Amino acid sequence: MMHLPLAFLSDFGDAIDFILHTREAQTGTVQVGGLAEVLDFTWEHIKVSGAAIGVACAFAVPVGLVLGHAGKGELLAISISNVGRAVPSLALIAFFVAYLGVGFTNVTLALVLLAIPPILTNTYVGVRQVDPDVIDAARGMGLSPGEVVRRIELPLALPSIFGGIRTSAVNVVATATIAPLAGVLTLGDFILSANVYGQDGRLAGAIVVALLALFVELAFATLQRVVTPRGLTLRDP
Amino acid sequence: MTTLAQVQFHERSGDSCIARNDFCPGWIVDHFDRYTDPLLQHIFLTVTAVACGFAIAFVLALVARRRHWLNGPILGVTGVLYTLPSLAVFFLLLPITGRGNTTALIALTAYTLQIIFRNIVTGLENVPAEARDAGIGMGLTDRQLLWRVELPLALPDVIAGLRIATTTTVGLATLAVFAGAGGLGEQIVTGSNITFKTGVVAAGGLAVLLALALDMVLLGVQRVLTPWRRARPA
Amino acid sequence: MRRGQFPALVMAIAALGCMLLLGACGDDDNKSSDSGSTSGKLIERNPDNAGKKITVGSKNFTEEFILGEIYAQALQAAGYDIKTDLNLGDAQIALKALKAGDIDAYPEYTSTALTSFFKVQPQDIPKDAQDAIDQTQSKFAQEGLVAFDPTTFTSANAVGMLKKKADELGVQKVSDLKGKSQDLTLYGSPECRQRVDCLVGLEKYYGLKFKKFTPVDIGLRYDVLDKGQADVSIIFTTDAQLSTRDDVVTLEDDKKVFPPGNVTFVARKQTADSAGPDLKETVENVQQGLTERVMQELNARVDVDREEPRAVAKAYLRESGYIK
User: Chain A partners of C187 at a C-beta cutoff of 8 Å?
Assistant: First the structure.
């Protein structure tokens, strides 16, 4: 059903009001809304997303570097990316809830699995794209393989790596919206438990999570630009 | 004396695979009919969203072909649409389009725009200059150049974009249940389904298989439409 | 073929066919071994009801799905034009949908209606079931809603724990949790935070403060106990698991904060008026078979056997003799 434009503008106004002021819930028993509650859920959202990305990087970057340096496992790296993209985030969360139960750790684990493929693939590809001449020159100067990875390949692959982290970060923040299904109260709770927070709360949750996602994208895009040496053309992953 | 009809009380020993909540592949085969409607709805949502996304992105790419300054803004807007979490978009649209297929389709289509648009543009840009020159040399008009030379050569990139868009859309369409549009997600979040190991694996597994199947179909389409590439390694 | 043989062959085949048909009819008696002859009032299709549209809704947990389907399928058998919109959400959302006309009717519990809609405190709910029903019906009537006569079975929220844990803490009543609850985690539905027959009542009337309250979907209420995340979980007295498992116990509600409620089919007045007498008659007829034990059995078929509510509702209507 299409509403008149004026009608939905007022809905958005009510949602903004929800973010700023607490009000009595529909049942009349408790208070909902307000900046404190919104910030609480935002922090939880950032916590679970950050934890997942951190763990994913800790795993995927070293593995990607090693594989990329050795030139092995290209099929694996690309396939992981394709299969990873095909697994629905909802199914992943549900799988962990069904097998391991609800809770912060379990949700983080699911999000880690979600975050690994883009980071792994981009690290691998980033290392493979380093000019072989540069590596030969480095070897010629007497650098050990480990030093080649640390001092040549890693820095040159950084733009690609950060591109992967950026993609993962946006995916994880988006998926963390359904974390309330697993008992972790992120901004998604405003959306999924509209009975508690009301229509205003639900729209407010959608607005805040959209802004958070945009902010994360912007932050990582900036980071990616910062680590890109001038003169190196950035190919978006 | 007539006795009232009775509901049968079943014996439940807790021994069966389902009672223990283990993974029971046999159950999936026996109860597959539970998944056919959600699967069909899922296919409908995915194919419609990607088709609409392709149509819109294609038009945008054609418009930007001779006006390269448009690339930045278009990538910017489609990029924002790509970044917004789908669940948020469903409920941002709710006041305007309500619950149902329309809301889900708008959100899913919007998500595909950036990747498809970017790949069409890249594909067109990567057409070798020699091919373009040859075409001009043969006297082709600009429109003929586009449709007979540039687009066929850009096809692999375009299909690559469609493949990525399709795979991600299948994944996102599981969330369509929250917008009231059904799909495989219905079998995951309704009632106590989220604790039902066999059911979760079945619904999730079907989504993954669907994504891989559609991916193969598009790959096949590419092979059919670009026979000249078969001679070279992919 | 010789003359005379052809008619004989036809007779033989006809006889064989008759025997097979009789055999098939006879089979039905063998299936339902411990039930007697059908005598639940069979629902008759009334052609006057054709074209009368009714949208039946339900709240968001197993028992509500089953009840919604039972009423919907029964009314369909009576000839109404039925649509379902089950799994709307919690009581507040369902009531809102009803008042807005998104649905025309849904099953509600008298206790939930009195405490959540009409702000009656649990201890003020009439002890006499009939008085509680009368109060519910008159309060709904003031909102332009008709609450039909309710079921005989009742259901209530309950405080559940694993038997192991309850024994370990030595608790049998909810008030035994005083002094212990600050070390315990409580899991309940999202709306439990706001309901007086849930977290609000536990804090207000029992004076309990839990270490943490985590809201999860109603469908997870036993899973969180099993996986060790919840020390205490809010469950329902008609849950299948309470009869199929012996490792879960409910604590006695000594302060009467969780009042039992009968189920009443609540409809918009316009719908009730235009639907004719069959609406009331069908609804009150089809719920006769719903004893507490039967409701538990139906819940078990969905939650334990993982059958779909629609199929379970149909089986109930068939087995009880309301539809063929």
Answer: 183
